[in-house]
TrEMBL record, chain A:
It is a multi-pass membrane protein. Gene3D superfamilies: MetI-like. InterPro entries: MetI-like (IPR000515), MetI-like_sf (IPR035906). Its main location: membrane. This is ABC transporter permease. GO terms for cellular component: plasma membrane. It comes from the Bacteria. It comes from Kitasatospora phosalacinea. The chain crosses the membrane at residues 102-125, 137-164, 176-193, 248-274, 280-299.
TrEMBL record, chain B:
It comes from the Bacteria. Residues 61-251 form the ABC transmembrane type-1 domain. This is ABC transmembrane type-1 domain-containing protein. It comes from Kitasatospora phosalacinea. GO terms for cellular component: plasma membrane. It is found in: Cell membrane. It is a multi-pass membrane protein. Keywords: Cell membrane, Membrane, Transmembrane, Transmembrane helix, Transport. InterPro entries: BP-dependent_transpt_permease (IPR050366), MetI-like (IPR000515), MetI-like_sf (IPR035906).
From TrEMBL, chain C:
Gene3D superfamilies: Dipeptide-binding Protein, Domain 1, Dipeptide-binding Protein, Domain 3, Periplasmic binding protein-like II. GO terms for cellular component: ATP-binding cassette (ABC) transporter complex; periplasmic space. It comes from the Bacteria. InterPro entries: Peptide/Ni-bd, SBP_5, SBP_5_dom, TAT_signal. The keyword Acetylation does not apply. GO terms for biological process: peptide transport. This is ABC transporter substrate-binding protein. Residues 90-420 form the Solute-binding protein family domain. Keywords: Signal, Transport.
């Protein structure tokens, strides 16, 4: 138990370190970008004097180190700063963008976890059987399709040709919740394939494990063995994959947001990078980074709990 | 499991052959026609800038395959030495120095990494390969590390150390060999992941030139003509899908065989 | 996502105006908007218009930078003047303007108009707005356009009359009143969270990055709009705008792909409106550095371009060929100059004469605007046929315009609607702030100054023609085409002006639309 506690402590410290390092790293990366917010804002009217005035107005003429220290100081006080371009507080951007993104991600996860477990367990039911093969082929085929291609396909067939669902989220999610169906489907498709395959592999390995064979000899029902003895052991790798998938989910979210016009964080990030709006990029990096760190932490803890012997990454 | 293997091989063969031999068969560029017209001497029609789609298909495989392969190779060129060294060293500080930066990198959302780096790098196959590799390195290194730690704890390694074998020999001769299967499986998934990332990068408009002869770019840029000239999208999309699905099938077949072998 | 750039700047990609009705010789048949003005307008309803978005998240009309900003600003605010279809200024809040004999003082009479809160629009509001734009600390875009005005010496003669004192004679002063972003706001306004303007629509609510909801202004000086409500939405992705339109989630989609237009034109699900001869497309050559400091090399490059192939390939055929001059069809455009065509032999001869036999040039381009990289690739192939090696260098799209202003020698370029005079003054004088061709010729500056102190329109036209002939003979702009601007609407939307390029008065003019 002490080893678990010290392991947890080390893992937490690592998480904190990661969370602190992410904004610093992202700041260095954004500083390496060609041009700054003044250049980007000037756009196709790059009058040098105008750019100089813009730069001074944005305080971009101060040294980078100073700007970072100011920003970090603000962060410690809970102040994420204001956008260089619009002057609105970064927290407003986060608040506006977070709801749609979280809604999409939560719906996707709510669908993803039970479905991938179900598919994985079903496929593992009889290895090499028709069901296993059907699920295997289907997941392989879908896994090879990038989100944007799947999205375009679904929109043109389901929404525009058949008219079953609205094609985009233009006009608001609250007014018409049906607009979320297609984005969530697109978002779930690929991770569903990878995770269900992992669950299947884990199940097969677990069903072969000595303690399950033991349980079988003791005459436990097959269903009970499957769900209570094999499944927990199959979950460890899947949980870690799920955490990593959440990171990829963010990537998919950008694509999905663009295709379906969902004004979430991915869109904000894309625009902020294009505008060199460093405070907004930084704010998003902090949020995304924290999210990733917490998820990985949770997954590692879960994996440690589910399969204490596995050297869960730490 | 032979049918699975055969199907996978067949699926991979078509795009691979096209990628390999296509540029040799492509010939010189003909005059441009009006964009998105089916037929008229172009048996797959024309693309968004009036080029012959068949010629683009012939030319467009090589960059996709090369970038995916190069990115995967690059990933392991970094991940393998780092992961192995960190696992086999007995100096804790070295392990920390090698692995902790990767932990930080893994916490930077790959999307932020991709968008920011793509804006800084000039678009092209080299930059894109580096980008895809950069995203994959931390995870791959961790996989190598975890596998190697397990192997290094085996009595055989201890025995080799005792008998004074050089650490390079232990690393390459024994550990890497024991990890072969895990690594092959991991590399396969990474290859498919790289293919996916290359396609998505084309959609996001990062890391590739918008008129490049490249299947992924073709799928994205010919989308507006889907109703006029669907072949310009469907053919490259099918080729990419075949490549990814085929790789996965081959991988499955290989793992299955491997798995059975191990159990025996 | 790169079919069309996410952020479209006004000038960089705006539609250069084309008066199809003028005798300027650009004559192609225009696509008539279906049933436009055929039936009597019906009052009521909400129209949802979707634009490419991004960027600016405030409603400050002086920060107007992108098309969606311009559409928002023109629904809420008015300018003193605006551009007609041939880019000549037409009066808006100004009822009339009158110069003195020296062309240095212009007296502008305001019409009776009121802001949404009932206050009248006065001369003081005009001066406040212009002084705000011209504030050297603030870098508003329209500041460069307002530069000729000596605002300290300009004053209100009475509440409805402004006397503008200029720094120098300026015959085309009305162009300033119509400049992009030169909107009139109520005196003293700094807060635009719930903007009050004099425009045809009143503010209801705004969600940055998402939607702006407006309601009709029944007291607008030009008469109330037909629509009850207008919602301006944002969708960066072109396919999403089309989907929203096809799926009935929007009634008006701005900026579509030529292929999309071709796929849906005449099918009855949506109506496509092509604003012909729109954005100028070309390349800029730096006329002050090798190899383009030699006029023969510039002329050789003019002869290399196969303009039809460029229009077909880079613009999907949705456009017209250019003749190395800006503003085809605009007022003062010399339409009688012969159309230049490809002449590879002539190009080789010129290059030989210039001692540039095996010429190698780097062409800077970037996916900053639709068709840029494609056009660069096509020109590269064409140049190869004349023995010139063109290396295409793709630059960063976010800083492209700044990078090519003074960097490199040869670059992709495009420009939206503005009067020919503005193009000359902003890009081709020694003092110009965005002189991408580095065309600095004292005698050319002198011709421009002379034109601006010439009151007689015929004499001025002759001077403009002399300047443009010079540019046509050996300037730094290789103008190969003019792109269509494509807008689509639901079939029930009526009243879309077919001939109004982006940034002109009738473009995105939602007060004139109605729902059948």
């Amino acid at each position: 138990m002490t080893s678990l506690r010290s392991w947890t402590g080390r893992r937490l410290a690592l998480g904190l370190g990661q969370a602190a390092a992410v904004p610093a790293l992202v700041f260095v990366l954004t500083e390496a970008l060609p041009g700054d917010a003044a250049d980007a804002l000037a756009g196709d009217d790059p009058d040098p004097r105008r750019i100089a005035v813009l730069r001074a107005a944005m305080h971009l003429d101060r040294p980078a180190r100073q700007r970072f220290l100011d920003w970090a100081g603000g962060l410690l006080r809970g102040d994420l700063g204001t956008s260089l371009v619009s002057g609105r507080p970064v927290t407003r951007y986060l608040a506006d963008g977070l709801a749609p993104t979280l809604l999409l991600a939560a719906l996707a996860l709510a669908l993803l976890v039970p479905l991938s477990l179900l598919l994985g367990v079903l496929a593992a039911g009889r290895e090499g059987g028709p069901l296993d093969r059907a699920i295997g082929s289907a997941t392989l085929a879908v896994y090879a399709v990038p989100e944007f291609a799947l999205g375009v396909l679904l929109v043109s067939v389901v929404a525009l040709r058949l008219g079953w669902l609205p094609p985009t989220a233009v006009g608001g999610v609250r007014e018409q919740p049906a607009v979320l169906v297609l984005p969530v489907l697109v978002l779930v498709a690929r991770p569903l394939c990878s995770i269900s395959r992992l669950v299947r592999a884990g199940m097969l390995a677990a069903l072969d494990a000595p303690h399950v064979r033991q349980a079988r000899r003791h005459g436990l029902s097959e269903a009970r063995i499957r769900w209570t003895h094999a499944l927990p052991n199959a979950l460890a790798p899947a949980a870690q994959q799920l955490a990593r998938t959440c990171d990829w989910l963010l990537c998919g979210v950008v694509v999905v947001e663009a295709l379906f016009v969902v004004p979430g964080l991915g869109t904000v990030l894309l625009d902020a990078v294009a505008a060199r709006d460093v405070p907004v990029v930084q704010g998003l990096a902090v949020v995304f980074g924290l999210f990733t760190v917490v998820l990985n932490l949770a997954a590692d803890l879960l994996a440690r709990r589910l399969a204490p012997r596995s050297e869960a990454a730490a | 499991m032979r049918p699975r293997f055969l199907l996978g091989a067949a699926l991979v063969a078509v795009p691979l052959l096209l990628a390999l031999c296509g540029p040799l068969l492509a010939g010189p560029a003909g005059p441009r026609a009006v964009s998105f017209t089916p037929g008229q001497g172009h048996w797959l029609g024309t693309d968004f800038t009036g080029r012959d789609v068949w010629r683009q298909v012939l030319l467009g495989g090589r960059p996709v395959v090369l970038v995916a392969l190069a990115a995967t190779a690059l990933t392991y060129a970094v991940a393998l030495p780092v992961g192995l060294a960190a696992a086999l060293t007995r100096r804790t500080w070295l392990e920390e120095v090698l692995m902790r930066p990767l932990d930080v990198l893994i916490a930077v959302p790959s999307l932020v990494l991709v968008l920011v780096c793509a804006a800084a790098l000039s678009p092209g196959p080299v930059g894109l390969s580096a980008l895809v590799a950069l995203v994959a390195v931390p995870d791959a290194a961790r996989t190598v590390h975890a596998g190697a730690v397990e192997v290094a704890a085996r009595p055989a390694v201890e025995a080799m150390r005792m008998s004074g074998e050089s650490s390079a020999r232990i690393a390459l001769g024994y550990t890497a060999r024991s990890l072969r299967r895990t690594l092959a499986a991991d590399a396969g998934t990474r290859l498919v992941g790289a293919l996916y990332l290359v396609s998505t990068a084309a959609f996001l408009g990062v890391g590739v030139q918008p008129d490049a002869s490249d299947w992924a770019v073709m799928v994205d840029r010919n989308r507006p003509g889907l109703d006029l000239q669907p072949l310009a999208v469907l053919v490259p999309a099918a080729l990419i899908a075949a490549l990814a699905t085929g790789t996965n099938l081959l991988l499955d077949a290989a793992l299955h065989r491997g798995g059975r072998g191990a159990r025996r | 996502m790169n079919q069309l750039p996410r952020r479209q700047f006004l000038l960089g990609t705006g539609a250069a105006a084309l008066a199809l009705t003028t005798a300027a010789g650009c004559g192609t048949g225009s696509t008539r908007a279906p049933a436009a003005d055929a039936a009597s307008p019906r009052q009521g309803g909400r129209l949802r218009a979707v634009f490419a978005g991004g960027g600016n998240e405030t409603l400050d009309p002086h920060l107007t930078n992108l098309f969606v900003d311009a559409a928002r600003a023109k629904a809420l605010f008015d300018k003193l003047a605006d551009y007609g279809p041939d880019l000549a200024a037409v009066p808006r809040l100004a009822e009339s303007w009158e110069p003195d004999a020296t062309l240095r003082t212009w007296t502008v009479k305001l019409r009776r108009a009121a802001f949404h809160d009932g206050r009248p629009v006065t001369a003081d509001d005009v001066l406040y707005s212009y002084r705000r734009i011209a504030d050297p600390e603030r870098a508003f875009r329209a500041r460069a356009s307002l530069e000729p005005i000596d605002l300290a010496a300009s004053r209100a003669l009475d509440p409805a009359t402004v006397a503008f004192r200029l720094k120098r004679p300026y015959a085309e002063f009305p162009n300033v009143l119509a400049a992009f972003g030169a909107y009139i706001v109520p005196g003293g306004t700094e807060d635009f969270t719930a903007p009050v303007g004099s425009g045809p629509f009143r503010f209801t609510s705004f969600t940055p990055g998402r939607s702006l909801l407006l309601a009709r202004n029944p007291d607008h000086w030009e008469g109330a709009p037909h629509l009850d409500e207008l919602e301006l939405l944002v969708a960066a992705e072109e396919s999403a705008r089309v989907s929203a339109l096809l799926g009935g989630q929007a009634d008006y989609a701005h900026e579509l792909n030529p292929a999309t237009a071709r796929a849906h034109q005449g099918k009855g699900r949506i109506e496509v409106v092509r604003l012909r001869n729109s954005a100028m497309q070309g390349f800029v050559m730096k006329t002050d550095r090798p190899p383009f400091d030699d006029e023969r090399v510039r002329r050789a490059f003019f002869l290399i371009a196969d303009r039809r192939e460029l229009v077909d390939g880079a613009l999907s055929g949705a456009g017209e060929i250019g003749n190395d001059l800006f503003g085809k069809g605009c007022r003062y455009y010399p339409a009688d100059l012969p159309q230049r065509t490809q002449d590879l032999e002539g190009a080789r001869a010129l290059l030989r004469a210039a001692g540039a036999g095996n010429l190698k040039v780097t062409l800077d381009t970037s996916p900053v605007a639709a068709g840029f990289v494609e056009a660069a690739g096509i020109f590269k192939e064409q140049a190869a046929r004349a023995g010139v090696t063109v290396e295409v260098r793709v630059g960063n799209k976010d800083t492209y315009w700044k990078d090519v202003l003074d960097g490199g020698t040869f670059a992709s370029y495009r420009s939206g609607a503005m009067p020919i005079e503005s193009h000359l003054s902003q890009r081709l004088l020694s003092t110009s702030t965005t002189n991408a061709t580095h065309w600095k010729r004292p005698d050319f500056d002198e011709l421009y100054a002379r034109a601006q102190s010439t009151a007689d329109p015929a004499a001025r036209t002759a001077l403009y023609e002399r300047m443009q002939r010079r540019l046509h003979d050996g300037g730094g702009f290789l103008v190969w085409g003019f792109a269509d601007w494509i807008v689509a609407t639901a079939p029930r939307v009526r009243g879309v002006a077919p001939d109004a390029p982006a940034n002109t008065l009738d473009w995105a003019r939602f007060d004139r639309l109605w729902l059948a």
